[in-house]
Amino acid sequence: MHTHSLPRPLRLRLTERGGGWLAGACLIALAVLAPLLTLAGWALGGDLAHWRHLASYVLPQALANTAMLLAGVGVLVSLLGTGAAWLVTAYDFPSRRILTWALLLPLAVPTYIIAFAYLDLLHPIGPIQSAIRAVLGFDSPRQFRLPDLRSIGGAIFVLGFVLYPYVYLSTRVMFMTQAASLLEAARTLGAGRAEVFFRVVLPLARPAIAVGVSLALLETLNDIGASEFLGVQTLTVSVYTTWVTRSDLAGAAQIALTMLAFVVGLILLERHGRRRQRYANTQRMRPMRPRRLRGPAAALAAALGWIPVLAGFAAPALYLVWETYKRLHLVGGVSDQLLAGLRNTLTVAVSATVVTLLCGLVVAWAGRSLRESAVFNPGRACGRIASLGYAVPGTVLAIGLLTPFVWIDRAIAGVFGGSGLLLMGSMAALVCAYSIRFLAISTGAIEAGLARIPPSLEQASRLLGETSAGTLRRVHLPLLRPALAASALLVFVDAMKELPATLLLRPMNFDTLATWLYAEAARGTYEEGAVAALAIVLAGLLPVVLLARTNLKMGH
Predict the structure, then answer these.
(1) CATH node for 18-276+286-555
(2) What integer pLDDT is reported at residue 306 of this predicted model?
(3) What residue ranges do the domains of the chain occupy?
(4) How far apart are CA 43 and CA 61, in angstroms?
């Protein structure tokens, strides 16, 4: 972008406040757009025979499976998340205080790890079905067995019990901020408790439910491990198999473009659900007090509340602990390959976290520096574009990054010589992909942190002759430490868990904990895979504990 093409007042402001920040933000936004543009180019440039083959043999089944999976997961997370949020907000019963944060624990476990654990737990000769047959007096799986987990129903169960906290979080905040006077007015007009919930509480919570469901469905669309483990051919799995198994990049790009249409549809659906939701409360809000339950009602409420926690976290986590113990105690330690995978995971995650924070800081500060422009803030526009990566599934992003990486490698080889595999032959490709994928986390957190810093501090610094970069370094960065730390933690854990992009972009003979687990599950060697899975879960617990502390403070 050339400042000479801008209106004179805005051009002067860019010069005064440092056009370098805007240039950096524009480059970052272009890096996020590049894979999406190249993906469209690959898909549209493919032979029509690809489209006909996909339309006849691949897309119908993959689209049907994806649609059924999204519909089932959407219903399940809505029921679990909304029900759990109302239960701990409207009622008081034993263990409620613990349950308010325990309901967040499934967020610590990636979906593919839950699927990995339940495949062994619910195996026909596994511990759960064996225990049920012992109670019922059966001796063989031929006499009694549960429905096969490798199905659409099994995938809905696994994904729903892992992803419901997205709905629980957003909906509980809405429930806690509802004024008690509204509910009391409805009761005064003769409405029963069930009628108050369905006619007053639930309609007011629709925007929060829509936000939570859309996030859960985006995670479902990004999933590859759980779907493949459970034998469900979704669009994401089709992208992976089309590229890796059939070496058909154009076909994979065309399927990925179809996935992008699903992503856009989900975002539009979420906005449609909130299009007319405008509420104002002009009176002082008095939050409702939970109703005290006793006896059988309290026991039933506690049992219902703990079911999602047990199914979505406790049972798989205990399984992983036991399998890890067997591996470490009976086999005598972990393999050297697994230790190498741990080192690779930490190296890539730390590198991606640093790059993502730096890029987020550049984008957020560019928007802050130009916030006073009256008509158009190009820095904020770059920030919106840079946040698009989080809505793009990892498989789609990986396909789109291939061409830019090849161009960069060829350009470097042309100037400096060498093999031309600087990006594609190293973990740099993964760092770039992770940074684009999770840039929205750091940008959003830093923008929120900057919004809490009074502009007067910046103005005073500038009046004293400090530059834009000096103001950021000496004034804002010390105040931004909490926001930077929180976003760094979230990016680090997400990078450790990322599987789809890692499978498609990793160099040869380069494994992370996620890809190691994926390979072990494919081979059926659960003990070795459990060690990697437990390490990922322990890392994922860190942000969930912090989130739970915040949630607990809000509830009391």
Answers:
(1) 1.10.3720.10
(2) 94
(3) 18-276+286-555
(4) 20
